[in-house]
TrEMBL record:
It comes from Deinococcus radiotolerans. This is C4-dicarboxylate ABC transporter substrate-binding protein. It comes from the Bacteria. Keywords: Signal. The keyword Mitochondrion does not apply. The keyword Signal applies. Residues 1-18 form the signal peptide. InterPro entries: BUG, Bug_dom1. Belongs to the UPF0065 (bug) family.
């Protein structure tokens, strides 16, 4: 009888554990911002015991759209999660088949913010943002790049050039597989200017290998000694946010459970400590307000893409 009771108890425990386990999609290669956020989520869910044994998997391609095409088929499953941000919203809008949209997802929470920074080699003649925008007006063949086409860096660069009176349609963006690869290309003499996530560029900035000309934040950020574009008279800003989503079709109980778990995670000291270590900026915005933010953000990104000539 004792053995039967023990077996039953172990079965119930295993079942409960399986039900609380999440599968988290990072729709990008390992090592990038989406992958880091997904693994931080899984690690915090485990160490806080909110949902042990969460599994992360990667499906890269098309700025996140390739992975999402399969993810949205798991409609109604509250234990399937995906992390992405601004770049993937842009990728959805530039995707040729239009097979995925925000209507296919349940926004759970906005979790982190990052900012773009325009950088040039330390030996560059461009010492200020004004120098750079003037150079672009006289030389539209300036080699400008960073991560993928329609990435946060591409959008911010276009925003800066347009706000300073330049012809943004002449911007010829040179894409790399990621921010780090773009910086390496610039240091190798293949690019004149790069727009990168500040977190990726920080070590090169502090080491003096590159010069930071402008940060995409709305106002000066404590601890970051880089002027914003707005400080320099250019009305341009961009927040490169990332959040977590579930498939569409969750019932009320599923949404409530998921919102509770992610809310407790975002307020935990383990989560905040991990983000500091990873040089990510915590910004928790729960589901309802996150969904409202997304409605406005989608329209803004659509306008930026149209200005760049990437959509009609």
């Amino acid at each position: 009888m004792k053995n039967l009771l023990l077996t039953a108890l172990l079965t119930l425990t295993a079942t409960a554990s399986a039900q609380s386990t999440y599968r988290i999609l990072a729709p990008a290669t390992t090592g990038g911002g989406y992958d880091t956020l997904a693994r931080n989520l899984a690690k915090t869910l485990d160490v806080t015991r909110l949902a042990p044994n969460a599994a992360v998997y990667n499906v890269p391609g098309e700025g996140g759209v390739v992975g999402l095409r399969e993810f949205v088929k798991m409609r109604g499953d509250e234990h399937q999660l995906v992390v992405f941000g601004l770049t993937t919203i842009a990728a959805m809008q530039t995707s040729k088949d239009g097979s995925v949209s925000l209507r296919d997802l349940t926004p759970v929470a906005r979790l982190v913010n990052d900012y773009e920074v325009l950088i040039v080699p330390a030996s560059s003649p461009y010492r200020t943002l004004g120098d750079l925008t003037a150079a672009f007006k006289s030389n539209p063949n300036l080699r400008v790049g960073g991560a993928s086409v329609a990435s946060a860096g591409h959008l911010f660069t276009g925003n800066v050039l347009q706000a300073s009176g330049g012809n943004v349609r002449t911007l010829k963006w040179v894409p790399s597989s990621g921010n780090l690869q773009g910086i390496k290309a610039m240091l190798a003499g293949e690019l004149d200017v790069v727009s990168s996530s500040y977190g990726v560029a920080e070590d090169d900035i502090k080491a003096g290998r590159v010069r930071a000309l402008a940060l995409s934040a709305p106002e000066r950020i404590p601890g970051i000694n880089v002027p914003t574009a707005r400080e320099q008279g250019v009305d341009a800003e961009l927040v490169n946010w990332r959040g977590v989503f579930a498939p569409a079709g969750l019932d009320a109980a599923g949404r409530a459970s998921l919102n509770s778990v992610v809310g407790r995670l975002a307020r935990s000291k383990e989560w905040r400590t991990l983000l500091v270590q990873e040089k990510q900026n915590s910004f928790y915005q729960p589901g309802v307000s996150f969904a409202y933010f997304l409605d406005r953000e989608e329209l803004r990104i659509k306008a930026l893409l149209r200005d760049l000539g990437l959509t009609k």
